[in-house]
Amino acid sequence: MRILAVRSVPLSRETRDSWRAAGVRFAKRHRQRADIERLVVRNGYDAVLNLGSLGVAPDGAWNSDETVRAVGHRTLRATLDGEGMPPHECDGPHWHKHGGFGGAGTTFHEREMDGCRQADGEIQKHIEGDEYRVITVGDKVVQASRKVNVEWINGRHHFDYEWCGVEGVRRNGIIPLLHESVDKIPGGEMSVLGWDIIVGERPYIIECNTSPGVNEPTARRIVDAMEQAMQ
Predict the structure, then answer these.
(1) Which of 125, 127, 132 is nearest to 86 (CA)?
(2) Where along the chain do its domains lie?
(3) Which residues contact 106 (CB under 8 A, 6 or more apart)?
(4) What value does the mean pLDDT of the chain take?
């Protein structure tokens, strides 16, 4: 299957190499929609995968503009009808998300932050539990990893991901939650999403990413699932 990826943000070298090893090719950044459409026709691509761009991917692309907008920081809770992390009144440990990607722009606070009700960005309550990154293609879960070696350094979250696979999230409520959530996202049946989820007394969706970091096995699973969905 020949896939052309478009993106608006830089990707790590590991992520780019992983996609390429799975047969995905990248259009140059900042291409216009008409340029992408010509590339698809000229080179016979089977699908376009939009990794976080807006206004670039052609009609019929995976991760449409509508999908990208629906899962953004400011819109995800509304898209999911209130599911996800509970709102916070700044009276205890909380997260402050104020832009950036790859964890940048997100800080943890042990106690109330002065004026956080008026802070830019989003405030989320802190919940103790195991945290996961889960990849979906449509409503199919294709990969999952768990955060390990978690440390707090100067208010920043540092960790490693340990592969646990789909079996690792089969009994903790994550899979049915994601089936329901993808159904609520416009264009969710043609989406490739990376979900950050924490499991406390139940699973909570922290955020959703249309440009998730991947290793080579995960990229290959995503491509295989896209191909199966298009048959």
Answers:
(1) 125
(2) 3-62, 69-85+128-230, 86-126
(3) 95, 96, 97, 98, 100, 157
(4) 86
Nearest to 108 by CA among 150, 148, 146, 70: 150
Question: What type of residue is 61?
Answer: A
Mean pLDDT of 119-136: 80
More confident residue, 63 or 118: 63
What's the CA angle centered on 21, arms 16 and 27, to 5 degrees? 50
**Looking at the domain that runs over 69-85+128-230, which CATH code has it been given?**
3.30.470.20
If residue 156 lies in a helix (H) or strand (E), which one and from where to where? Answer: strand 156-163
Taking the model in full, what pTM does it have? 0.87
Q: Is the pLDDT of residue 139 over 50?
A: yes
* pLDDT tens string 64-73: 999 999 998 7
Pair 51, 7: CB distance under 8 Å: yes
What's the token pair of residue 208?
């959703």
Strands 106-109 and 94-97: antiparallel
Q: What token pair was written down for 123?
A: 């405030």
Rounded Cα gap, residues 91 and 89, in angstroms: 6
